[in-house]
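re: ur question from yesterday

yeah so i grabbed the chain u mentioned. its 197 aa long if i counted rite. heres the sequnce exactly as i have it in my notes:
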Amino acid sequence: MMIFCSIEETSEKRSNHHKKLRIEEDLFIKIADNDMEAFEELYRITEKSLYAFILSILRNHEDTLDVLQDTYLKIRSAAHLYKPMGKPMAWVFTIARNLSMSKLRTRSRIDSIEVEDIENDLSFSYVTNREDKMVLQAALTILNEREREIILLHAISGFAFHEIAKNLGIPLSTTLSKYHRGLKKLKKYLLDKEVNK
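ran it thru and got these structure tokens back, copy pasting raw so excuse formatting
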């Protein structure tokens, strides 16, 4: 399965992928000055990471796309408020989390999330491999929110564990234990599913 393979990719590949995720803090200054090229650069660098992060919270493709768009709009309108602290992705994730939680509150008033809805909604634009969709479905179904965030940020977005810990504001040891606990749950679920075929 591609996601599990990508989880165990070499450190060289991971560091090359990670370089694409670097955000220079002056990018927000340029965005605040209405520099569309800077805004497009931010979008290119962070789109997949933000998608994975928001999906880990909302567990719904359409809602994730809505919140993703709202997040970029909020970043564009609030870029002048960004205070350089060496954590640009933490700021972006905070905006995305707040908008995701707002969406969840709104959605919970309207309806509830059903596993069948998730199964029928696996047309995620970033996941085209059938086996990856199966792993993603399992992650969305059986993992708790924090486990989903950590696994998706590591596997799909290529963040190192120390970056995930820093961006989510949790200790590295917690990040690692939740990652490994979540992986064990996924592997057990997928093995059980394979055996029951």
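noticed a couple things. Confidence is low (pLDDT under 50) at residues 1-20, 112-125. also Residues 2-195 form one domain.
anyway ttyl
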